[in-house]
Amino acid sequence: MTITIIHLVIDDARHYKCQDLTDPSPLDMRVSPKTAIAFSKPRSLTSGNRLAREQGLSVMDFGNDRLDGLQQIRAMISSNNKAPMIEKLGLALVEIERGHAVFEGVPDRSVYNPLGGVHGGYAATLLDSACGIAVHSQLGPRRGHSTLELKVSYLRGLTEKSGTVRAVGRVTSMGGRVAFAEATLRDGAGQLCATATSTLLVFDLKR
Questions:
Q1: Element (H, E) at 55
Q2: pTM: predicted TM-score of the whole model, two decimal places
Q3: Domain residues of the chain, as ranges?
Q4: Cα–Cα distance measured from residue 102 to residue 129, given in angstroms and rounded to the nearest whole number
Q5: At 86, phi and psi to the nearest 5?
Q6: CB-CB contact of 199 with 148 (8 Å)
Q7: Which residue among 24, 104, 151, 178 is least enclosed by CB atoms within 10 Å?
Q8: In b/e form, how buried is each residue of 18-30, taking b as 16+ CB within 10 angstroms?
Q9: What is the mean pLDDT of each run of 10 residues along the chain (207 residues)?
C-alpha cells in the first residue's frame, strides 16, 4: 500500500508551501490561498483507512488505471469507504449496475430547514449522486465526470417521519463528451417526492 501525505505550510505572506512527506524532495509550488488546490498521487486504499477519509475521497482513488468506472465504484463499496459528503449526510450507495445507481438515506432533524422540513439540498444531493454515479458506472478507465446542470422538481416534502428515502438514477444518453441522466426520489412509503434531470460533462483524466 502506498499513501502520499501532503504537508501544507502557510508562511507570513499567506502562501502555501507543499511538501510530500513520503518524498524528501519538496514540491515546487507556491500559490495564494485563493488559488490553492489539493494535491495527491495515485494510491491504494484499504478498508477503514482513516487518513484517506480525512484527505477526502474520490471514486478514482480506488483501483488502478485499468479499472473502468463500474469497477472503481465497486472497489470503493467493498473497501467500506464513502465520499465525504455522502458520509456526512449518512447516505449510502445500495445498488450499482452499469448505467444504474441507487442511494438511500434516513432524514432527521439535523437536515431540517428553518421552516421545519427537510432542506431541499438533502433531496438534491441524493438525486445528483444517483445521476452522477449512474454515469460514472458507464465510463472507461481514466475517465471522469462533472455535473453541468441539475434540474430538480420537488413534489412532496420530506420530514423525519419519511423513513428511508430512495433515489434511483439511470443514464438516458451517453456521449463522448456529454451524458444525460434522470433520477427519482421516493419516501419510505413509496410516494414520489422529487425528480431530477441532469446534464454531465465526461472527460479524460490527466495522467
A1: helix 50-55
A2: 0.72
A3: 68-204
A4: 9
A5: -65, -40
A6: yes
A7: 24
A8: bbbeeeeeeeeee
A9: 37 40 39 32 40 52 78 93 94 97 98 97 98 98 97 98 98 97 98 98 90
